[in-house]
Amino acid sequence: MSRPRTTLTAVAAAVAVVLTVLAALLTGSHPATAQREDRQSGAQELGDPDYGVCRGTNPRCYHAWDNFDPATDGYRVLLYTRTAGPRHANLGPALGSGLNPALADTNVVQKSLVEMGRANGFAVDWTEDVTQLATPSRLFRYNAVIFFSTSRDTLDDAAQTALRQYVRGGGGFVGVHNAFGTEYNWPWYEGLLGGANFYDHSANQPGTVVTEDRHDTSTEDLPARWEFTDEWYNLVPAPSKVRILATVDESTLPRGVTGSQGHPGHGRSHPVAWCQYYDGGRAWLTTLGHDAKSFSTDGSFAGAKEFQKLILGGIESAMGKKPFCRAA
């Protein structure tokens, strides 16, 4: 009885091989080639995803569709700080509904960016009301949209669609600090962040920021190395296809870089600021910005002046007021 079963098994295997070869001939590919391509495709998808859009540092990924006319309308940005999870102290209490609700003294981020804009020739509107991001036409009033320490799922379906269409139409995006802890399960947004996402962070502690690329608008006036205190973000994935602008020297962190979830850090290249063109728009990103004192102006917080220059340059370049993601 064993021989017939063995014969049937062998016949079935032979038929499978013949069918595979015939399929390969019909499609013009060889099975071994197809397997190799599958492995390569899988490796690319896991190691360097493109999120199905044009992304990288080449300005050919940008759509100049004349949605903005600074000569007529000036420069204006929208600051979005809504939190649906942990809320950083420098954001202060949750804001009321609508556009430009009342601010308390403890709304440090909002008040600081409004003043930064006033001092540098651009207007800042602020909100935590998701309906203010509900349509592309609302967002096209702004040369850039800034997510500063938003958290978790802060956008509904309409706002997600509007943000995507805004970026595709040539809009600018600035993501600061816990913008990386936002919209975790939205691959397009992860790509907007540079193909990066928050995993955990080290203790809040001083360290040395290394200015890796001093040709960009956001870094051209920064020293090669400068001291700063932050909770240094560890990322999974780490950014890819971006221009790295600044890193942290992990060896300068007195309490180490290992995060609360066990991430060991990024070794010799631990990025903290970068830029890219993405899906038709411009995206400038930094993981820095935890402490309200980073907006101080009295010299009491090491690196505050440098941080503010970094942020200002990122905003001005993302909105198109100054050159964006500039290479040597």
Helicity level: 25-40%
Structural class: alpha/beta
The ordered string of helix (H) and strand (E) elements is HHEHEHEHEHEHEEEEEH
The CA-CA distance between the termini, in Å, is 77 Å
Which word captures the global form?
globular
Strand content: 15-25%
| Low-pLDDT sequence parts | 1-47
Average pLDDT for all residues: 88
Q: How many separate helices?
A: 8
Highest CATH level, the class of the largest domain: Alpha Beta
Largest sheet: 10 strands, mixed
CATH topology of the largest domain: Rossmann fold
What's the gyration radius in Å?
24 Å
CATH architecture of the largest domain: 3-Layer(aba) Sandwich
Q: Compute the number of structural domains.
A: 2
In CATH, what is the homologous superfamily of the largest domain? Class I glutamine amidotransferase (GATase) domain
- Strand tally is 10
Task: Report what the structure shows.
Pfam families: ThuA (PF06283). This is ThuA domain-containing protein. It comes from Streptomyces mesophilus. The protein is an alpha/beta fold. The chain folds into 2 domains: 46 residues, no CATH class; 258 residues, Rossmann fold, CATH 3.40.50.880. It has 8 helices and 10 strands. Strands 1, 2, 3, 4, 5, 6, 7, 8, 9 and 10 form a 10-stranded mixed beta sheet that branches. Strand 4, helix 6 and strand 5 form a beta-alpha-beta unit. It is globular and about 50 Å long. The chain starts with a helix and ends in a 10-residue tail after the last helix.
